[in-house]
């Protein structure tokens, strides 16, 4: 069901862990949906120097978290904000249709961590402006039915 | 690297026993006759089917003429529930069942609701048990059918079927039980249990897939489900799956002859596994009743981790098991059974079901216990939920 690359990133996930005094931390998902991703970023001069994650979730959730951290390291925050869930899935040689929603988690996790960084550096108001906050299960999973028909 | 596969998912399906396959094989080739044909190879097929029917009857305390072969356990459940509901519609439209039934029963009941029937889904306690008193209280003048599973496929809990059967009989209500997980694991006598209809499936007790049976007590008012030819005494159309039926007959005979010894072995493996997981892994919860459970069933929730991840890692170590997490069910919600026994979503997502069978040994449990605690720990180290708990300590 999973590509070799997904299995590799699941069995040997890159960048698992936490960063002490991280410049940006984002947590998305919730336990009810069965997946939570927490992402830590070390950022210097708007360039992501390091990224770590912790994920509660299925194989696809772990693999996309791992891949997302690999993709953002070395990028500027503007570049990182442009990484889409599709790009994460493609970098993993694809995900099964029912698992595509797991890749949203990675995209949102990175966005949330960068937003946290922007807030900390005073470039974003304390109120959350993106759709990432207050998200519910169905938001994350809302494409599932259509994907099932594939 | 060890290449052996340790199969711990016997509630999903079982391998066909060599003795069973051997009896089936001729019916694919030289004994291929249609059982409805009057010439000798047709009659031979007919005879083989009737012998299988006798074996099923003997294993369940029924009369051979009360056994009807079907294409699966799901078909037997569909037939029993829709058949009795529609045949007795003039008398009433109320059905009683439980919240933890197999989908073959739940979705059939939901279908009937969409067609004007009323269904009561009885809640279960934290161990997955329904009480006979609950059933009695749910009965209305319009109740025509009670359908309650014998043993649960996920958590293994065994229901008080005989007591419920007695209540059904007192109230003159038909009683169906989905015994797909029970047959071959628990000795069954339809008369002692006061069961009017009982579903079973061959591949759960070392028979082939694609064949099941429905016991229908003589006199039960039930409509046909499959219309067509006059097979199964005009009750179930379809050219008989002769090899499958022969396999079912042989498998049920072997299973019932050997049931005590088989149970003893499975209970040993089960109890040892429950004990060791409880001892060696922190933050776990046994799901289902500790004692009123299927001999081979172990079901645990591991806090802070997700079931599919656990299954994938076990699979990499050659262990095949199952989970009630949403990711493995193909839906957004975790198992309805785990939610019905009161688990929160998070705990339900982290469930693992191990079901032992014939070929499992203590060495398999040794190996499981060698790899499982480390896998759970590894996933927890990766989990943001565990992080919070560690910090709290």
UniProtKB/TrEMBL annotation, chain A:
One of its GO terms (molecular function) is iron-sulfur cluster binding. Pfam families: NifU_N (PF01592). One of its GO terms (biological process) is iron-sulfur cluster assembly. Residues 1-121 form the NIF system FeS cluster assembly NifU N-terminal domain. This is FeS cluster assembly scaffold protein NifU.
